[in-house]
Amino acid sequence: MTVLEVENLNKRYGDFTAVDDLTFAVNAGEIFGLLGPNGAGKTTTIRIIMNIYPADTGTIRIMGEPPGGSPSRVIGYLPEERGLYDDLTVLRTLTYLGKLKGMTGDAARQRALVWLDRLELADRAEEKVKSLSRGMQQKIQFIGALVHDPDVLILDEPFSGLDPLNVSIIKGLMRDLQANGKTIILSSHQLNLVEELCQRILVMNKGRAVLYGPVEQIKREYSPPTVRVDSSTRIDATAVHGVDHAAMQNGHQVLTLVEGTDPEVVLKTLIDQNVGLRSFEIVDPPLEEIFVARVKESTHA
Q1: Could you tell me which CATH class the domain 2-219 is placed in?
Q2: For a Cys-Cys bond, which of 52, 119, 156, 268 suits 47, CB 3.0-4.6 Å?
Q3: Which class would CATH give 224-283?
């Protein structure tokens, strides 16, 4: 089942094209990554989906309805910018946000307390928002996006300001939400987290789609074969047939192979050269490498 459909979406600001004939879909129950460099059009796209900005042309359907047509409780939105009330207490802020989504005050309050406890912020309920650290405020904003139990969550840079421990907590929460049938659209510059969490992605640049599809398929189609080697000597890429280049990463030598090269042939060559192999592993390059290459390619196209 498709919960979000975007077809031929366009948005211009004077002579600047922010979104250029963009088409994609998000399936129910998946974590979908919406990615791109600064200025790629991601936030504009999200704001059109949220009915904050109107599209110039194109079609959007959320649960079969146009933006603004679905009940507000269907979607939860965590914007990139802070959207909290500094002088209100945490609990009053979350209760108010729940009421905006159609909850009764009592229901919103009780659900807010449950989420505050789960995110280890129960002792901050009666503190003013402005007294909290940036990371705590981000967790409060996360609760505000889901306090009304939406079917679809749109999260724009949800890990901003979080330390590694809280990043782990939010990752676990997102996986739990997915396991409970929620659909999550995740926009983030932290591509290692996107790679961990997302089943499919859309990469934008200059308002257009430059990569779209399942993460594993993209990695197979757009990345050269790569091996990670632990050896007692530095490997000379020019001396090994089929190796395009070599680089050091985290104490290992990473060899990028020429397309069509059999890794077993490279392994045999290294053994014959007595490089002192301790390990030899075929690896997928990180999504970040593919992202950078495709964005650069589309920028200069």
Answers
A1: alpha beta
A2: 52
A3: alpha beta
User: pLDDT in tens for each of the 301 residues of the chain?
Assistant: 999 999 999 999 999 999 999 999 999 999 999 999 999 999 999 999 999 999 999 999 999 999 887 666 899 999 988 778 999 999 999 999 999 999 999 999 999 999 999 999 999 999 999 999 999 999 999 999 999 999 999 999 999 999 999 999 999 999 999 999 999 999 999 999 999 999 999 999 999 999 999 999 998 888 778 899 999 889 998 999 999 988 888 788 989 898 889 999 999 999 999 999 999 998 877 788 889 888 988 887 6
In this prediction the pTM is 0.85
Q: Please say whether the beta carbons of 102 and 126 come within 8 A.
A: no
Indicate the helix (H) or strand (E) that contains 146.
Answer: helix 134-146
Cβ atoms of 116 and 136 within 8 Å: the answer is no
Within the chain, all domains assigned CATH 3.40.50.300 are found at 2-219
